[in-house]
Amino acid sequence: MRLLIQFTDDELADFRWANFDEVDGSAALDWQLAGEGELPVIASQNPHPVIIVIPQQCVYLTSIELPEKAGRQVLAAIEYQVEDQLAQDIESQHFALGDTSQNPVSIAVVSRAIMGRCLALAQGHGLRLSRIIPEIFLCPWPGEGVSLSEGHDGCLLRYGTYRGLKCHAQALPAMLELVTRDVEIDRIRFYGATDEAAPELDGYEVERYALASVKPGFVDAPVIDLQQRDYQLSSVWRGLAKTWKWVGLLIVALLAIGAYNKAVALQELEDELAGIRQQQYELLKSFLPQGTSANDNLKKLLIERMRQLQASEREQGFLKLLLDFTNARSNYPDVEITRIGFQGRQLSFDISSAQLKSIEALLESVRKLGVSARLESLNIKPEKSSGRLVLEGGSDA
User: Fold this and answer.
1) End-to-end CA distance of the chain
2) Which residues does residue 320 pair with via DSSP β-bridges, in sequence order?
3) What are the pLDDT digits (tens) for 309-332?
4) What is the pTM of this model?
5) How far from 266 is each of 253, 277, 296, CA to CA, in Å?
6) pLDDT tens-digit profile of 239-294?
7) Is the peptide bond before 104 cis (omega within 30 degrees of 0)?
8) What is the 3-state secondary structure of 240-252?
9) What sign has the CA pseudo-torsion 235, 5, 113, 40?
């Protein structure tokens, strides 16, 4: 028996949980929602080994093609092989590997803050932590083709042993179009609950399977356990270190013998390094703030510039949502707006009207524009109805 705990966002506060029997259980899990304060009670009432599931939007899955005879030293520094794919400082990220006997090698990247929070929760509540896995491994996958199932607040689309993504239902057609660039899709296996209808996707044959007839994707199948390197003693990284222990000792001995030669060549290396720094500066100076010199930390300055560009993209997303809402509301002048808020990728409007049907019609008008929208906190009164209209946007919506 296992206790599954899946957090809903990167705060690792609210979560859903379920008990799972790895021998007789199925992927039709009986999920129950809970708040941060309920974790100690749930853990004490279900004293089973724990599998923590990290929301897929918090995990970046990628792969790197290695040279045919790449040494283990390359694997030990794998984060530098994918540094150019990340708009973040790699020192703040944790890198976990899939099967290292395969090439390309699959990699999962997650924030070190999230991993630290997982271990703190496990230690603080006495959890017997078994695995920490990305959410995509909840989706059943028979070993070929494309699988689709419901995740928490989105759809899980899996198309490889270590490949997959999460998106909203409205974005499925666009995501499938991107997937077809990497794999050929002849059919899609949809795994749903008993009363859950398969989605209709133009141009794709969808076969429906019951979740109760299969096991989750992490059972008896390869997964990337995020408990590696600094977060588990018996990790893939420790195994590599033990295997190559004697090689490492030999390298140390050779370095000791060649210490004198290294000292002589040190000045030449420093001169070469200075030349490389100057070349980097000449290449990047048009993208950096005025007053930046070759001796500054160019990497951090470039990361900050990329963050500013990302912030600009979020502002553009805000304006697009606001424009769509304004166009839709122009047909319902009786709907009043008392407050506007924008947080993350959500734009919210506190609205009210004497006609409930006007609020509902406005919601449908916004949805017809292709915007993911919902009503929250709806309060219906004879004289006036009110509620919050939430619009979602962004590159992954």
Assistant:
1) 36
2) none
3) 555 444 446 777 888 888 888 889
4) 0.58
5) 19, 16, 22
6) 455 556 667 778 878 888 877 777 777 888 888 877 787 877 777 777 677 778 87
7) yes
8) HHHHCHHHHHHHH
9) negative
